[in-house]
Write a structure and sequence with these properties.
about 70 residues, mainly alpha, 4 helices, about 10% strand, globular
Length: about 70
């Protein structure tokens, strides 16, 4: 079994949400399924804030964040 790491950026998060718009499961796996994350940006920037909020949210809140991202409300 390999070590799964993922690079997160604002652009990557937004593109993944759009490409996974019909499947919350795959977006959630993208956001929380890796062993480690490298986050592009300084603390307080979009990728960092979104990753932290999504990671600490319950299932319902995660789906809400996902839908807002798809609709470009955030």
């Amino acid at each position: 079994m390999g070590f799964n790491k993922r690079f997160l950026s604002e652009r990557g998060i937004r593109e993944n949400a759009k490409s996974s718009s019909d499947s919350f499961y795959w977006f959630e796996k993208y956001m929380v399924g890796a062993d480690a994350y490298i986050i592009e940006s300084e603390p307080g920037d979009f990728a960092s804030k979104f990753y932290n909020e999504f990671g600490q949210a319950n299932q319902e809140k995660r789906k809400e964040l996902f839908n807002k991202l798809i609709k470009e409300e955030i």
